[in-house]
Specification:
globular, 1 helix, mainly beta, 5% helix, six-stranded mixed sheet
Length: 123
């Protein structure tokens, strides 16, 4: 499945952004999808994930601020980000796999990543 991220930008602390992950392919609905981020000089980390059935998973540093959702009719997964902090600044990527386990714990082995979308939180 091919994925394209969009929706990033510059926002002030406390602001909001909604990222989109648009997929090609008719079988997208069977995939689990994760949102990840990579800040300069740091490793890529999981932010949130959603199963093909819509169950969600968040890491502690975004729980309560970010919401992941999916619209299978539009082949798109969203990441609504509220109460943004400067430390949320990073390039955000999405990726997909039939296995939620690989999406949440084995994503470092994914061989293909898109360009991502830059999120900058700054005053």
């Amino acid at each position: 499945v091919q994925l394209v991220e969009s929706g990033g930008g510059l926002v002030q602390p406390g602001g909001s952004l909604t990222l989109s992950c648009a997929a090609s392919g008719s079988i997208f609905s069977v995939y689990a999808v994760g949102w990840y981020r990579q800040a300069p000089g740091k490793q890529r980390e999981l932010v949130a994930a959603i199963t093909n059935g819509g169950r969600t998973n968040y890491v502690d540093f975004v729980r309560g601020r970010f919401t992941i959702s999916r619209d299978n009719a539009k082949n798109t997964v969203y990441l609504q980000m509220n109460s943004l902090k400067p430390e949320d600044t990073a390039v955000y990527h999405c990726n997909a796999d039939p296995s939620i386990v690989r999406v949440t714990t084995l994503f470092a082995a994914f061989g293909s990543w898109g360009q991502g979308t830059q999120v900058t939180v700054s005053s």
